[in-house]
Amino acid sequence: MPFPVMHSLTYFLIPNLPPDAYQKVLETYGLDKPLFERVQLYVVNFFKGDFGYSYKYFPKTPIELIAERLPRTLMLFSVVNIVAFYTGFFIGKVLAWRRGSKSETWITITSVFSYTVFYPWFALMMLWFFGYKMGWFPIGKFLYPEKWYDAPFDSDVIFSMMIKFVVIISLLQFAAYTATRGIEALSSRRNVRFASLIAIFIGSYFYWNTGEALARKPYAADIAYHMILPVLVVTIVAFAGTALLTRTTMMEVLKEDYILTARAKGISQKRIRDRHAARTALLPVVTSFIFTIVTIIDGSVLTEQIFSWPGMGQLLLQAVLEEDIPVAMAAFSFVGVFALIAHLIADISYSYLDPRIRVKSQG
Amino acid sequence: MKDILVVDNLNMHYETLEGNVMAVNNVSFTVKEGESFGLVGESGCGKSSVASTLLQLQSDNAVISSGSILLENQELVGMSESELRKVRWNDISIVFQGAMNAWNPVIKIGEQIREAIREHHPENTKKENTEKISELFKIVGLEDSIMDRFPHELSGGMKQRAVIALALSCDPKIVIADEPTTALDVVIQDQILKEIKKVQELLGLSLIYISHDIAVIAEMTDNMAVMYAGSIVEMGPTSSIFTNPRHAYTKLLLESTPSVVGEKKKLRALDGEPPSLINGLSGCAFSPRCPDPSEDCSNGKLDMKLIELETGHWADQCCVNCG
Ligand SMILES: Nc1ncnc2c1ncn2[C@@H]1O[C@H](COP(=O)(O)OP(=O)(O)OP(=O)(O)O)[C@@H](O)[C@H]1O
Ligand code: SF4
Ligand SMILES: [Mg+2]
Predict the structure, then answer these.
(1) Which of A358, B80, B245, B316 would give a disulfide with A351, using CB separation of 3.0 to 4.6 Å?
(2) Does A35 reach chain B within 8 Å, measured CB to CB?
(3) Cα(first)–Cα(last) distance of chain B, in Å?
(4) pLDDT at B145 over 90
């Protein structure tokens, strides 16, 4: 007797169900079949990506819901993670380099504070201060509904567009960096890299001021504005872990003989710090960073709740609280697949970062 | 011949929680153009400390209390970091003790050498640098393909050869080799020593060769200094020291080494430990281990000072007087 399922279904959807309709519902969900067949069906459907229909948003499938929510979460947290990683890595690197100085002590104490602070309390305090007291940033939501009232498109269109933009920019930057590695003279390499950065800036300026993107710009700007506070808060909490870890690993690396050799070679301090010390200290930092990526979606539950950001985290939480079982199952499965993909990326990036784990394809 | 490096009355100590470790005391020596100079002594006597001070690369807790290091008439003590950067590798380079760890594990060998050349000769093209490295590799007996390898893909001996190529990459006037063959097996050790000797003669380099093994010093150097407890106790032409050692420590060191030169002698073990260098020593540091100290030696009344016995052969005056 599939009672619990039917209970939640009837409870949320249709309180007084006539018997023939009840029968119909059973058939729709395949609940009249024997248990074994149902399991088989479930497994087959799982691999087809078919999770049935949401109880709550009935005609929509869980996959449709995820497709709608995911870009919002990814947009917010990829920005947070990139910003947190770079600031964390940079600060950790500088801390290790200036070991023993006064600024090191103070920044370390601050980092430890933000690493250990009770996050919901901190987020609410920031929300209260910057959103309410100062009124600089919107409280909650990811857009002003009144602005979007007569928008000719959905918000996910804008979200996917913004994500695409961010991805393309990063890829271009990466490509420029890789392409200039062969330039021998350091100063001209630096200049070319700087020029490529400028070119990317100019390119994005033109992109946002022509054609389709121009019409979408105010909406994208609205979303970006709503993102500032959550990004700021989560970054403050998230950067500290990276910073402290970078500091520790880099202090170990600085004791290595090859750092002394680099100094003996007459290499500049900055280059020793960045090219020799930080580069080698990167591996454990990237490892831990990938693990934070894995927790983006489950980690987003809290953040999205506090900032009323209707992304995956909220979807997950609502599905569980309201017993929207197909959606909950789909969302959890997705978290699992996402974790697998992140680990795959981690493995690939290791081999890029550390030649010692690189496997030779030829003999 | 021209003096390349003149070290005069160098004093250096490490500040530690237990007190000052007097690692380099009144050290003076001169290295001439094309000369190979040896520095020998037991573990912990301050050889590496001298080497790192020559490049001004001593650790943060090291203090140079007095003395001067003249490299081609440039004073290195007290030189600013940016000026030192120009001198390092370009004029004086070093093969560190444990040079196997001298390679950054995530950067290709060729790139690590190129990096040094690039720093001192920014005008070079990539092709010129590659040719330069290839030329150096030929001298030390490595194939060009090593350039594109990562350090972990090389054997210990190959890494060591590559380190020598690295040390030569900016055509320095003087190279310091601090026990460059430790951690290698005997056969490879021998090859590397021959390689260094060959390179030194080929390029007319000045070389400071540091080792605890007096036999290697005999093979490698023209002039040498014997260090004990942070001080030079005897210094002079290698042949002269081997045939006519004057300091009790040098004598014991020679006797404790299986026949280097001359007839076979009965080996004598060097008993005891070198003294702790904390807070300095007065009198002869070797007296507790000396086989026949005179009375003056043990009551610490002696004044330690090198005196010239024959042309260029110096030894501690007290030891010469009493022994
Ligand atoms: N950074 C440091 N801080 C404090 N003491 C040090 C430091 N480096 C070396 N010492 C001490 O200085 C003395 C000389 O050390 P050094 O490394 O110069 O000896 P060495 O002759 O090179 O010995 P080895 O043959 O073992 O390499 C030793 O007693 C050592 O413990
Ligand atoms: S000075 Fe005296 S104690 Fe020192 S080594 Fe010479 S003989 Fe021995
Ligand atoms: Mg040493």
Answers:
(1) A358
(2) no
(3) 34
(4) yes
The alpha-carbon gap from B107 to the nearest alpha carbon of chain A, in Å, equals 8
In which band, very low, low, confident or very high, does the pLDDT at B323 lie, cut at 50, 70 and 90?
low
- Number of domains, chain B: 1
pTM of this prediction?
0.81
- Distance separating alpha carbons of residues B293 and A218, to the nearest angstrom: 93
Tell me if A184 and B87 make a contact (CB, 8 A cut-off): no
Ligand closest to B228 (CA) is 1
Residue with tokens 């790139």, as numbered in its chain: B111
Q: Do A356 and B96 touch (CB under 8 A)?
A: no
A265 CA to centre of ligand 1 in angstroms: 22
User: pLDDT tens digits, residue range B52-93?
Assistant: 999 999 888 999 999 999 999 899 998 998 999 999 999 999
Q: Which ligand is nearest to the CA of B321?
A: 2
State which residues form the domain around B308: 234-323
> In one letter, which amino acid is A248?
T
Q: Does residue B48 sit within a domain?
A: no
Closest residue CA from atom 5 of ligand 2: B248
Judge contact between B124 and B117, C-beta under 8 A.
yes
Task: Write the pLDDT tens digit of every residue in A301-341.
Answer: 888 888 888 888 888 998 888 888 888 889 888 888 888 88
Residue B176's nearest CA partner among B296, B88, B302 is B88
User: Is the CB of B318 within 6 Å of ligand 2?
Assistant: yes
Which of the residue ranges A116-130, A349-363, B8-22 has the most confident prediction, judged by mean pLDDT?
A: B8-22
- Of A126, A141, A144, A121, the C-alpha closest to A76 is A141
Give the ligand whose atoms come closest to the C-alpha of residue B40: 1
pLDDT at A41 (0 to 100) = 86
Q: How far is the centre of ligand 2, averaged over its atoms, from the C-alpha of B242 (Å)?
A: 18
Q: Give the Å distance between the CA of B178 and the centre of ligand 3.
A: 7
Centre of ligand 2 to C-alpha B320, Å, is 8
User: What whole-number distance in Å separates Cα of residue A300 and Cα of residue A288?
Assistant: 18
> What are residue A183's phi and psi, to 5 degrees?
-70, 125
Tens-digit pLDDT profile for residues A235-249: 888 888 889 999 999
pLDDT of residue B30: 93
CB contact under 8 A, B116 and A266: yes
Residue of A nearest to B121 (CA): A185
pLDDT tens, A20-71? Answer: 777 777 777 777 888 898 889 888 888 888 888 887 787 788 888 888 888 8
> Residue A234 is which amino acid?
V
**B259 pLDDT above the threshold of 70:** no
**Which residue in the set A187, A265, A279 is minimally distant from B116, CB to CB?**
A265
Q: Which of A55-64, A68-77, B206-215 has the highest mean pLDDT?
A: B206-215
Which positions in chain B touch A256 (Cβ < 8 Å)?
A: 101
Q: Is residue B12 in a domain?
A: no
Neighbours of A140 (CB within 10 A): 14
- Quote the pLDDT of residue B260: 54
CA–CA gap between residue B133 and residue B117 (Å, rounded): 9
The closest of B159, B177, B323, B170 to B244, measured between CA atoms, is B323
Residue B262 placed within a domain: yes
Query: Of B287, B305, B309, which is best to mutate to test ligand 2, by the most ligand atoms within 8 angstroms of its C-beta?
Result: B287
Q: B210 in a domain, yes or no?
A: no
